[in-house]
Design goal:
Elements: H1 14-23, H2 29-36, H3 44-50, E1 62-70, E2 73-80, H4 86-99, E3 104-107, E4 111-119, H5 124-133, H6 135-144, H7 147-151, E5 155-166, E6 172-183, H8 190-208, E7 211-218, E8 225-232, H9 244-260, H10 262-282, H11 287-298, E9 308-312, E10 318-325, H12 339-347, H13 353-376, H14 381-395, H15 401-411, H16 418-433
Antiparallel strand pairs: 1-2, 3-8, 4-6, 4-7, 5-6, 8-10, 9-10
The structure holds (R)-mevalonate.
């Protein structure tokens, strides 16, 4: 990638942006033509086969975040999102973090977890023991149900048993929950996991004398974690009347509030998910699965808390860290069908699944940094209103160059609402016709 073509990317006109991505070697000639011809569309025939009762496509803007340096590699990150200012904030945060050495990441095992719950087990302890003794047998039966993933080096690798006690009913031990840890390689692997869990159910019923109730993957992917960290020297944080040290300390305090107060933690984490979801969606992955798992992970201590930590090191630098369960894939589902998802993978240089996790968790950390930094300094509305003004201009009916003209006047108006945008547009059009 040649980033010289990507300088001041946000200032370029739409077609020039696409051309710059081509010149920088981020997209191919064919992808450039698709974007220039505005033909990045899911065709209705394919879509009709993807879901039931299909009636049309629901579009979402696809943009690119700039300035990312992740594990010393420069990357352009595709984001599908309707909310103004997320991509601008992402690129801004990545620029500051990039100038301080970028993001450093790690990923753990990449194991999905299949869960089988058994009810009416006559003796839970005895059943637990029997399952543990039959571990090898259970894993090989699971693997027989999906030989192709085993051939690719994946498959069922480990097993855990949990007795579930009913805390709504005097903590009575009630169900047996069997977890199978399954390597699904490049896939998110829901189908692989579910097939395996269904296949071992009769054997587990026989072993435990219980009845299998649920046989499904859990989205609480605690065996598939990705972590991103960054270190930002305080002097890089200086803004307006705030010194770098003040901004650093305010970010640390704001994160402390999100650690102790669920009301703030939810909003704080929503800011993280602005970035995470946008890349998960662009890459054709199941963002509901990621959302569900991430919020459960935020509650792992028993209270819902901030997912990021911001602290300072001995040198006085701001140190950020984010860990997320990220069971994303690079094959399967809509990834190889949806033209937007295919383009997104190409923009990122066709990462494998662990690398995609590294990218997503870094975007989450950057997004949180941008949001909290703005909140504790100039406030969020300044940045938001600029882009919001453009949305209002479009809603008022402005087209082409008039969108920016209306937005510019609106930004300096006392009342920034739709009616004001309509009046401004009317004035511009009248001027135009004179
Ligand atoms: C808005 O989409 C996200 C923020 O509310 C996140 C935050 O408060 O940290 C700005």
């Amino acid at each position: 990638m040649d980033t010289t073509y990507l300088k001041k990317f946000y200032k370029k006109k739409h077609d020039d942006k696409i051309n710059a991505l081509f010149l920088a070697d981020v997209i191919s000639k064919q992808e450039k033509d698709v974007l220039l011809n505005r033909t990045l569309e899911l065709d209705s025939d394919t879509a009709n086969h993807m879901i039931e009762n299909y009636v049309g496509n629901y579009s979402m803007p696809l943009g690119v975040a700039m300035n990312y340096i992740i594990d010393q590699e420069e990357l352009v990150v595709p984001m599908a999102i309707e909310e103004p200012s997320v991509i601008a904030a992402s690129s801004f945060a990545a620029k500051i973090i990039g100038s301080a050495g970028g993001f450093k990441t790690t990923v753990t095992g990449r194991m999905m977890i299949g869960q089988l719950t058994l009810k009416a087990v006559p003796n839970l302890e005895v059943a637990e023991q029997k399952i543990k003794e039959a571990k090898k047998d259970i894993l090989s039966r699971a693997n027989e149900a999906h030989p192709s993933i085993v051939k690719r080096g994946g498959g069922a690798k480990n097993l855990e048993v949990r007795i579930l006690t009913d805390d709504t009913n005097n903590n009575i031990p009630t169900y047996l929950s069997v977890h199978v840890h399954i390597s699904t390689q490049e896939a998110m692997g829901a189908n692989i996991v579910n097939t395996m869990m269904e296949s071992i159910a009769p054997y587990l019923e026989e072993l435990t004398q219980g009845k299998a109730l649920l046989r499904i993957l859990t989205n609480y992917a605690t065996e598939c974690l990705a972590t991103s960290t960054c270190v930002i020297p305080a002097h890089k944080l200086k803004t307006g009347e705030f010194s770098g040290e003040e901004v650093r300390d305010r970010i640390i305090e704001a994160t402390q509030i999100a650690t102790i107060d669920p009301y703030r933690a939810v909003t704080h984490n929503k800011g993280i998910m602005n970035g995470v979801d946008a890349v998960v969606l662009a890459s054709g992955n199941d963002w509901r699965a990621i959302e569900a798992g991430v919020h459960a992970y935020a509650s792992r201590s028993g209270q819902y808390r901030s997912l990021t930590s911001w602290t300072k090191n001995d040198a006085g630098d701001l140190v950020g860290e984010l860990t997320l369960p990220l069971p994303v894939g690079t094959v399967g589902g809509s990834i190889s069908i949806h033209p937007g998802a295919k383009l997104a993978h190409s923009i990122m240089g066709h990462p494998n699944a662990p690398k995609l996790e590294r990218i997503i968790v870094s975007v989450g950390l950057a997004q949180n940094f941008a949001a909290v930094r703005a909140l504790v300094t100039e406030g969020i509305q300044k940045g938001h209103m600029g882009l919001h003004a453009r949305s209002l201009a479009i809603s008022a009916g402005a087209k082409g160059d008039h969108i920016q003209q209306v937005a510019d006047i609106l930004k300096h108006s006392k009342h920034k609402n739709l009616q004001r945008a309509k009046n401004i547009l009317l004035n511009i059009l009248e001027e135009f016709e004179k």
